[in-house]
Design a protein that fits this description.
about 220 residues; about 10% helix; mainly beta; signal; single chain
Length: about 220
């Protein structure tokens, strides 16, 4: 199935920011440790990836289980990257997807990924996104255009086959700087964040876990 990711991109184009005010130094988006999925919405494209908050050794985390499925959780939120440019989270995967070509449409699956999206308003072609992904074969640090959306959606491999499965890793990304580097322009706001564990193209299985997701000043 290849239409699911096109539908995902169309949906991302339609996201609008509707958010309460936040602390100048920290903006919590995914407060999973409190057991809450408030403000997160589910969207299915092929079958349903199962998302649920579970207890992991005394701490609540978000668990995602995908079996030949493509669905995600999305939160619409306008984030001022000049105030809080750093995206923070931790994640873990329990299995790799094998030797797939993630830069092709048939291999565009990820055990774990987090999107950040800036909308283009009526100029929808200006909507841009970065996918921070746990890759299967692509080397860590490599960016590439999404196989379905082209240059408007850039993929970035933060973890890959060199990283241990079943191990938590903590990430910090300067989203303001990443947008500048990938799109060669100043993008001061993010309008949505999405989580997705998907295995529909490769018809495989994946289990991933996500800790709290938040933006910070540094």
């Amino acid at each position: 199935m290849t239409c699911g990711h096109r539908h995902l991109y169309v949906m991302l184009l339609m996201l609008l920011g509707k958010s309460p005010c936040a602390d100048d130094n920290l903006l919590m988006l995914g407060d999973f440790s409190s057991g809450s999925l408030t403000h997160w919405q589910s969207r299915e494209f092929k079958n349903q990836t199962q998302y649920q908050v579970i207890d992991d050794d005394g701490t609540n985390v978000l668990k995602a289980e995908s079996v030949n499925s493509a669905s995600g959780l999305f939160r619409e939120q306008r984030i001022d990257l000049q105030k809080t440019p750093i995206l923070n989270w931790r994640w873990r995967v329990d299995n790799a997807l094998g030797k797939i070509n993630e830069q092709s449409r048939s291999g565009d699956d990820y055990a774990a990924r987090i999107y950040v999206v800036t909308r283009g308003g009526l100029a929808f072609w200006r909507t841009k996104a970065i996918n921070y992904v746990w890759a299967s074969t692509t080397p860590k640090g490599k960016p590439w255009p999404n196989a379905f959306a082209g240059d408007n959606v850039m993929m970035m491999a933060l973890r890959s086959s060199d990283d241990k499965i079943g191990t938590w890793y903590t990430e910090k990304r300067n989203v303001l700087a990443d947008f500048k580097q990938q799109f060669h322009e100043d993008i001061p706001y993010v309008d949505a964040v999405a989580i997705m564990t998907d295995t529909d193209n490769t018809q495989s299985k994946a289990t991933a876990y996500y800790g709290d997701i938040y933006f910070s000043k540094n």
